[in-house]
Amino acid sequence: MASKRLLLLPGDGIGTEIMAEVEKQIAVLNDVAGAGFETETALVGGSAYDAEGAPVSDATMALAQAADATLFGAVGGPKWDGVSYDKRPEAGLLRLRKEMELFANLRPAICYPALADASSLKREIIEGLDILILRELTGGVYFGEPKEIVDLGNGQKRAIDTQVYDTYEIERIARAAFDLARTRTGKVTSMEKRNVMKSGVLWNEVVTRVHREEYPEMTLEHELADAGGMKLVKAPKQFDVIVTDNLFGDMLSDIAAMLTGSLGMLPSASLGAVDAKTGKRKALYEPVHGSAPDIAGTGKANPLAMIASLAMGLRYSFAMIAEADALESAIAETLEAGIRTGDVMAPGSTEVGTSGMGDAVAERF
Amino acid sequence: MASKRLLLLPGDGIGTEIMAEVEKQIAVLNDVAGAGFETETALVGGSAYDAEGAPVSDATMALAQAADATLFGAVGGPKWDGVSYDKRPEAGLLRLRKEMELFANLRPAICYPALADASSLKREIIEGLDILILRELTGGVYFGEPKEIVDLGNGQKRAIDTQVYDTYEIERIARAAFDLARTRTGKVTSMEKRNVMKSGVLWNEVVTRVHREEYPEMTLEHELADAGGMKLVKAPKQFDVIVTDNLFGDMLSDIAAMLTGSLGMLPSASLGAVDAKTGKRKALYEPVHGSAPDIAGTGKANPLAMIASLAMGLRYSFAMIAEADALESAIAETLEAGIRTGDVMAPGSTEVGTSGMGDAVAERF
Ligand SMILES: CC(C)[C@H](C(=O)O)[C@@H](O)C(=O)O
Ligand SMILES: CC(C)[C@H](C(=O)O)[C@@H](O)C(=O)O
Predict the structure, then answer these.
(1) Whole domain around residue B139: which residue ranges?
(2) CATH number at residue A200
(3) CB within 6 Å of ligand 2 — which residues?
């Protein structure tokens, strides 16, 4: 892979602060390991709206399409609550996902041993947890049309969102799930609401067929999304790979992340299809947490999820497995050494700020 | 209130067994307190499909429309997995909800002190938890049209579900939320995904207006449904009344129920509007748990959620507040006495079956 072009989109709120800590790790990769990453930075979200009039400009879209990987911080905040629906910060992220066709969103829910006590769950329930939520990211109710508010007169409005899934969209995410399961325990749990939604019926049918025809050696289980959510809370370790649609994936992956007690630590990867000609795939890496406007600018944000997102990028976009492992180990060692940001502070640990945490990881990387 | 006509719809799986325990409590009410309840029993779900060709017959619908309250067990099971979408067991429940216009679904998530240790969450996080999820039950993606699977040719199908909300539907559930909050701490949290869904935009707008114009003295907060789900898992006691749409309500109320560790104990009430002429409202009461086909017929099912559903019925349909309180106390006392079904068994407690549990409550009622 000749070029290693990274687009950095820090975004809003704590995005800028945590992205600065990623840049420290990239510097280590370049200086020490001669990795040769070239980075470029652009605006996204509310800050892009303020400066460029859109939550992601066409120029930035072009940069993202051309980059080997995009690192994304976070978007949104009360400052932009009044902005029109089309220009709201989140629209920038959704445009990136849709136009880059990043249909496969990998959200690992891992419980870092050093942080097990930060969970609201009992230690034995989450200690050692390592599951992967695979969320479909370019379909469903996020993008289906019609999506509109109609004025019915007499003070009545009607709001409509449309959940749409085509066979091919379910096939490709199902394959991604089984391919990932192959590198893990081989078990996939598919979640939908087939008892209420036609999209759930089709989802169930297609995942079942892909399993039978293409991955018969793997284990496939089905759960209704509500029952699956309950099982996640009760005994999350029973799962390995969970594959689900865009909206259920949004809910379930956030809940899974919170279970671990390690929300500020959890990265995600959004991947497109592998291009048959170039062998490359479009990709965007972002933390699971949001822009945390309440602590933005205070230097207190936890940059580990953002740094772990870089590690996912090394693994999935650049096949730099050793480097990805090393960066993930550096994060775990930093935590084991008792170095903590405020969100995961524990008695006996040493509290550091965003920058201190980035330095601590870079030292161990 | 002259008539006290109760329709009993036990349904499938453990439904029959747990409904029998409700009948014991009704007998206490009639024999000891002369309450004068008249009951009638009919089929619903898979058992109705088997016997009558539909998951709820027109005759049963008429009984439900005429009754003062309906007690519903649970429906569904693997036996009916192959049944067509229109005739599946759940369709019976959905028809009851829709045709009776039971738009307000009250799902209390209460942690019984005696059961706090059964939760996967740390005791201090859930001990004393008492929140109420108010789920909109007759709109949204459950009922919106189009809802279909279209054959596109070339092996491709397209599944469509439609999320629709009109202003009046949001207004009435918002009012229900504030009315309930008035009897509690006065705080309502509204959850939607306004950053992604137009229905979330309208939901937020209407709830905000109803609050400002009609309930300015109450506290209203808004959460995105994914972030709200995370907060539920992290610190559920920060909430009091949560109001949300049909699908988010399905997910969030199940998760809240599981948090408490008391799933087998949690009832729900589905209420229609109060009729201006008669002062009555249509109502259906059902446990939050499902039909548990795996333990059906073994006499092990926990009947407490079903019995607690009767207590909600006494409270909301018959204004029998003292009796409702007494029945709820009987449940709590039974648990305090260490009498447990297998699902909530703990060291030092006495294990009983479904019938033993029903008797134990009836004795204390
Ligand atoms: C910011 C928002 C649009 C987004 C989503 O709903 O997908 C976020 O919650 C996420 O999970 O990445
Ligand atoms: C049985 C099913 C149709 C139902 C629903 O999805 O509403 C159930 O999960 C519930 O929450 O009452």
Answers:
(1) 130-259
(2) 3.40.718.10
(3) A 195-196, 226; B 90, 93-94, 250
The answer on B55 and B14 residing in a single domain is yes
Tokens of A165: 């899934």
The amino acid at residue B6 is L
CA distance B205 to B267: 30
Do B173 and B228 sit in the same domain of this protein?
Answer: yes
Do B200 and B318 have their domain in common?
Answer: no
Which of B208, B231, B259 is the last residue before a domain boundary?
A: B259
Decide if pLDDT at A225 tops 50: yes
Is residue A238 over pLDDT 80?
A: yes
Residue stretches of chain B with pLDDT short of 70: 1-2
Do B156 and A147 make contact, defined as CB atoms within 8 angstroms?
Answer: no
Could you tell me which of A26, A80, A86, A17 has the C-alpha nearest to residue A51?
A80
Residue A212 forms contact with B (CB below 8 Å): no
Number of domains observed in the structure of chain B: 2
Q: Whose CA is nearest to atom 10 of ligand 1?
A: A250
Residues of A within 8 A of B263 (CB-CB) are 230
pLDDT at B1: 45
Tokens 């003295």: give the residue.
Answer: B217
Nearest alpha carbon to residue A234 among B135, B186, B244, B263: B263
- Chain mean pLDDT for chain A: 96
B174: Cβ contacts below 8 Å, ≥ 6 apart: B190, B206, B207, B210, B211, B243
The pTM for the full model equals 0.96
Searching chain B, which residue's CA lies closest to the CA of residue A263? Answer: B230
